[in-house]
Amino acid sequence: MKKTNISFLLILLITFITQACNAPEKVPPVPESELQTEDPMMQTIMDSVASKMRYYPDQIQFAFAFVDGDSTWYLGVLRENDILKEITNADSVYEIGSISKVFTGILLADMVVKEELQLETTLEDLGIETRTDFTFTLEELSTHTSGMPRIPSNMRWSAMFHQDNPYVNYDDDKLRDYLKNDLTTQSRPGTDYAYSNLGAGVLGYALQVKSDFDYEQLIQQVITTPLSMDQTTTDRSRIKNELVQGRDYNGKPTPNWDFNALIAAGGILSSPRDMIKFAKAQWDTTNTAIQLSQLPRHPVNSGMQIGLGWHIIYRNDGSAWLWHNGGTGGYRSTIYIDEVKKKALVILSNLSAGHSRSRLMDALGQDIMEILIKDES
Questions:
Q1: What is residue 355's DSSP assignment?
Q2: In which residue ranges of the chain is pLDDT below 70?
Q3: Phi then psi for 30, rounded to 5 degrees?
Q4: Nearest to 215 by CA among 117, 313, 129, 104
Q5: Which phi-psi region, left, alpha or beta, contains residue 163 (left: φ > 0; alpha: ψ -120 to 50)?
Q6: What is the pLDDT of residue 302?
Q7: Which of 311, 364, 365, 317 shows the shortest CA–CA distance to 341?
């Protein structure tokens, strides 16, 4: 009798789990919205924003920056008390996460143009010791084809105890020790695309070794100062008054991330206004470093290739978009650029990358780009 009861309870438990897994997901209602405009295109964009922000908690804000030919404009949206409100946040600052990798790719391209390095330069050429029998070129690090894992194994223990700031204790000494004594590869360098924060961080470290400048100095010299991007930095003390509070997946305040030795993988902060300057610079055909960074170098999948940091999305109409996204514990970002149609979109937010629906931001970006293109026709 006892065995029968246990079997019955086990069947009941399995049935419950199966039904729970197969139950349709409950979609929350679109929150009350104060987003209203007489411009039909902008109203369509606002409605699309509202449909995505239904999933996010209060105090999450999105900052949008648009370029359409010669026109530039901004939109800020805050969810507060379950109401979507329009706010002004074009000069607010957010962590941009992995969009930093595009900056790092341009730094590499700049050194190549100046003949200080070659894309084929290896870590060994720069005196950086690695444990494996393979060599790692700077191009492979920038295109995520180095075969290096996503994060170094000697960071995991520290990250486990600092989940709200996982990179904070990972310094140059630990990076060098890992490369020299513990590095393992997931594939032969130069063969497969496998996204790696470690690889991008090692690239930034290598550029610092070559130049004798730190990463902040490099981005200021090559990118932010020439483009007058005064709110773009890796130094939070410079923009502390403009910095938006990051939020965790529940919408609660969460610490900023310190990328330390892997700063080139995700350590930059910026504003919508600055990022639009960066987007427009991608159309400057006289800037040979930026143009070099955009050239496709390795397939990601059937519809995408990667350059030096930039992902290049090939569309059915024959056009292509430059794209990258980013995410940290308290922020999520995405950028799309259509070089032919001269349209660009930047979305910065204090939405955690840990939120289960954080990737909807990329889908929202695609939707908005399609709206901008459709409006042209």
A1: S
A2: 1-25, 377
A3: -65, 130
A4: 104
A5: alpha
A6: 94
A7: 317
Given CA atoms 78, 73, 336, 330 in this order, what sign does their dihedral have?
A: negative
Domain membership of residue 36 (yes or no) is no
Q: Which residue has the tokens 């019955």?
A: 8
Gap between the Cα atoms of 359 and 271, Å rounded: 20
What letters, b where the CB count within 10 A reaches 16 and e where it falls short, cover 194-228? bebbbbbbbbbbbbbebbeeebbebbbebbbeebe
**Partner residues linked to 63 by β-bridges:** 76, 348
Number of domains in the chain: 1
Would you state the pLDDT for residue 24?
56
277, amino acid identity: K
Straight-line distance from the first to the last Cα atom of the chain, in angstroms, rounded to the nearest whole number = 74
| Token digits of residue 175 | 């990076």
Say which CATH number the domain at 174 has. 3.40.710.10
Domain that holds residue 338: 94-376
- As a whole number of Å, the CA-based R_g of the chain is 22
Q: CA-CA distance, 303 to 314, in Å (whole number)?
A: 5
Residue 6 in any domain: the answer is no
The pTM of the whole model exceeds 0.90: yes
DSSP 3-state of 305: strand
What is the secondary structure of 136-154 as a DSSP string? -BHHHHHTT-S---SS-GG
